[in-house]
Amino acid sequence: MQKRGNQSSRNGLLLFEVNESTELLPFLLQQMSGRSRNSVKSILTRGQVKVDDHIETKHNYPLVPGQVVSVLKNKVAVKESVLIGMNILYEDDSIIVINKDAGLLSIATEKEKKRTALHQLMNHVKLENPMNRVFVVHRLDKETSGVMMFAKSEKIKRQLQDNWKKIVKERTYIALVEGRMKQAEGTIKTYLKESSTHKMYSVQDKGGQLAITHYRLVQSNEEFSLVEAQLETGRKNQIRVHLSDMGHPVVGDKKYGAKTNVIGRLGLHAKTLSFTHPVSGKLMLFKADVPKQFLTKSR
Fold first, then answer.
1. Which pTM was predicted?
2. Disulfide-capable partner of 170 in 191, 259, 274, 294 (CB 3.0 to 4.6 Å)?
3. Active site residue 245
4. Which is catalytic among the residues 92, 93, 141, 289?
């Protein structure tokens, strides 16, 4: 049975400290036992719940000890939840840099048009001027979290994409993978091709696109390893394929051979993005903290 967390209030907000691993909806149902299940689910759906410093709406979002869950009043939530599943790290007249949560699409699909990073940012910039727009520069998979950049004009988008390798100085990812990785560091170099079912796979000849990943072991136990990966090239699913090739698929990545899903999401996070600003020429560096579950599962 889930223990009740330590409860307090601040500025009219309810705060609950997580004492043991669980999921968000069961945790809230336990803490807010005076409310009906439908009432608690509505509070979640409306974006009134924060986990640490971000709005969270997923019922099965995994919680770990030490996190703080807060329930916002509806009026406060309306102001805070303009952006759901993401927060802005930096914005100027040329670019927007965000920290995207796992589970949020970068761009629209046939099934989902509005709950995407691009759609929300488009609404965000139009609050200042209805003519403002946002453009995709690069993408993160839906289940990958972390740092992502958008352009605020077609000209800046083209400038970034056409000079991507020159402009970007560092792209670092953190991956939680299955098994104890024995190699402390190394480089994986293959050519990637895409199957008819849209699955990427490695070939050793030049029949595909060259993909180079540099990796370093951060920590590990008997079940899982935490790996830092730097991209020299940015191919579709590159890190996921390369780590799977090594016999250490990313946790939760059933598509590429994972047998476990202990954190309720894909174990891949875009930790660092460093680049030369397309207008000012200044070196920019943005970081998104590694999710706590990645750290606790690999200790």
1. 0.76
2. 274
3. no
4. 141
